[in-house]
């Protein structure tokens, strides 16, 4: 598997060349999205997608050197919360997948294939890894959470597990 194959086969991003250019050049458009937390649960008694608006709690008001950060006193989150950071996270995901020759290097593949395994990714950023894993192992359940969900893909792009 080559680096190009990994990038072009990604189900999450159709505009990969522009994302890679944006990360490489440092160019990013301003992002004024409403911040929300998305919880996905496989329990049939709960609505599939529950969206809770948290914009009054988590606001992106602080600009430092042209980068957007959360302006919350007690939040120990040092990374920017802008599109350039989301693009950097995606590039990191692609490079790690290439280096590891897959999404992980651990002896759990059989358990994931058999199903019933639940995986929690805390600090999942834009959800690239957790969605790749859910697509690769549809019999297991994958949950991703992050303090900044503004770059999560829309629910129609997320697998049901």
UniProtKB/TrEMBL annotation:
<keyword id="KW-0949">S-adenosyl-L-methionine</keyword>
<keyword id="KW-0819">tRNA processing</keyword>
<keyword id="KW-0808">Transferase</keyword>
<dbReference type="InterPro" id="IPR003358">
    <property type="entry name" value="tRNA_(Gua-N-7)_MeTrfase_Trmb"/>
</dbReference>
<dbReference type="Pfam" id="PF02390">
    <property type="entry name" value="Methyltransf_4"/>
</dbReference>
<protein>
    <recommendedName>
        <fullName>tRNA (guanine(46)-N(7))-methyltransferase</fullName>
        <ecNumber>2.1.1.33</ecNumber>
    </recommendedName>
</protein>
<dbReference type="InterPro" id="IPR029063">
    <property type="entry name" value="SAM-dependent_MTases_sf"/>
</dbReference>
<keyword id="KW-0489">Methyltransferase</keyword>
<dbReference type="GO" id="GO:0008176">
    <property type="term" value="F:tRNA (guanine(46)-N7)-methyltransferase activity"/>
</dbReference>
């Amino acid at each position: 598997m080559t680096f190009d194959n990994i990038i072009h086969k990604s189900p999450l991003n159709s505009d990969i060349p522009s994302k890679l250019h944006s990360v490489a050049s440092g160019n990013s458009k301003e992002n004024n999205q409403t911040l929300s937390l998305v919880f996905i649960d496989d329990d049939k008694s709960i609505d599939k997608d529950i969206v809770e608006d948290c914009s009054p709690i988590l606001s992106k008001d602080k600009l430092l050197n042209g980068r957007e950060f959360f302006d919350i006193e007690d939040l120990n989150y040092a990374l920017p919360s802008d599109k350039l950071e989301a693009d950097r996270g995606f590039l990191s995901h692609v490079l790690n997948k290439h280096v590891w020759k897959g999404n992980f290097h651990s002896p759990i593949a059989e358990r994931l294939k058999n199903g019933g395994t639940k995986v929690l990714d805390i600090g999942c950023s834009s959800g690239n890894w957790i969605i790749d894993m859910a697509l690769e192992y549809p019999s297991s359940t994958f949950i991703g959470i992050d303090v900044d969900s503004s770059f999560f893909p829309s629910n129609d792009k997320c697998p049901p597990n």
